[in-house]
Amino acid sequence: MTRVLFVVTAAEHWTLNDGSKHPTGYWGEELAMPHKAFTEAGWEIAIATPGGRRPRLDEISMGRTAGLPGTIREVADYLSSIQDALDSPAPLSEMDPDDFDLVFYPGGHGPMEDLAYDEVSGALLTKRLASGRPLALLCHGPAALLAAKGKDGSWPFAGYRVTALSNIEEKLNSFGRKAPWFLEDRLREYGADYAKGKIPLLPHIEVDRSLYTGQNPGSAKQLAKRLVADLA
């Protein structure tokens, strides 16, 4: 059976450049839709967070501006069906990426606060990349890549073609304009070959060797579909 590790942020806020703490967590659609697709494919899923802390759902991701009403209802219903698993995640430090066929990082602004700096997650990502086995990150999930470091101190994802939430998309939210840094900019600074779709908010994915990335929440289903097809 195909086994998947979901690495989910445990952050409950995002510290903005004015010092304020914006409530956040994981983005509903980005966790629910891939989880549902993988479950329907018959895959076994484990959920882990830094410290094994219960992840927080970003309430904005369930609001009227987050997507079509039908999609929001579908996300809410699915998250409710897996609430027990979300309430009791495993500590990320106890997870070995070699035990899984796929490692998947959903987004939300939470990764900008914790996973972007988490050494345990960074080491897991470095090991996973070296294995050549599938690794996928969505929207703000690629912020976790910034914590990865090779033995020589270099960034192992340099030169990889990557997408993630663009600067334009970040600034569509009023609080996003207060970001202490933008993910698109930081990925470029680290040496990623960053790419994005021509039209903001529309689905866009990139695949470079074993690395799969999706640009925004709307890319969740497309990314999951590609992963199911490639891992079949």
UniProtKB/TrEMBL annotation:
Q: Describe the location of the DJ-1/PfpI domain by residue ranges.
A: 30-229
InterPro entries attached here?
Class_I_gatase-like (IPR029062), DJ-1/PfpI (IPR002818), Prot/Nucl_acid_deglycase (IPR050325)
The record's annotation in Pfam families points to: DJ-1_PfpI
Q: Which GO terms describe its cellular component?
A: cytoplasm
Catalytic activity, EC: 3.1.2.-
Q: Please report which protein family the annotation says this sequence is part of.
A: Belongs to the peptidase C56 family. HSP31-like subfamily.
Recorded protein name is Protein/nucleic acid deglycase HchA
Tell me the organism: Actinomadura macrotermitis
Gene designation per UniProt: hchA_1
